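A.,

Following up on our hallway conversation. Structure tokens first:
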């Protein structure tokens, strides 16, 4: 197991401890269990075939957590994607 795979495993372990509705952007060949896994390519484990550089066919406010291991470096309009992620995330509760 290489360094990236070890780090990925640690992050996944931490994220899967919580019972939240979770999204992994650009899952590729590493879809995560208990996550919605959209990807541009319909690989095994892909839940939604979609281009993350366009608005995703997902209702706003659907997710508590959004994770992306390596997909953001491939996005041309990073600010647009960050805005989309903000829309997809559920509102934080009032303190």
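Then the amino acids I'd put at each of the 95 positions:
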């Amino acid at each position: 197991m290489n360094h990236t795979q070890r780090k990925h495993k640690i992050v996944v372990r931490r994220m899967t401890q919580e019972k939240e509705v979770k999204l992994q952007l650009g899952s590729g060949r590493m879809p995560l269990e208990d996550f919605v896994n959209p990807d541009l390519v319909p690989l095994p484990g892909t839940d939604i075939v979609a281009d993350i550089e366009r608005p995703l066919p997902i209702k706003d406010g659907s997710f508590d957590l959004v994770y992306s291991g390596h997909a953001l470096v491939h996005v041309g309009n990073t600010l647009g994607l960050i805005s989309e992620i903000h829309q997809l995330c559920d509102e934080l509760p009032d303190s």
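Residues 3-88 form one domain. Curious whether your intuition agrees with the design.

B.
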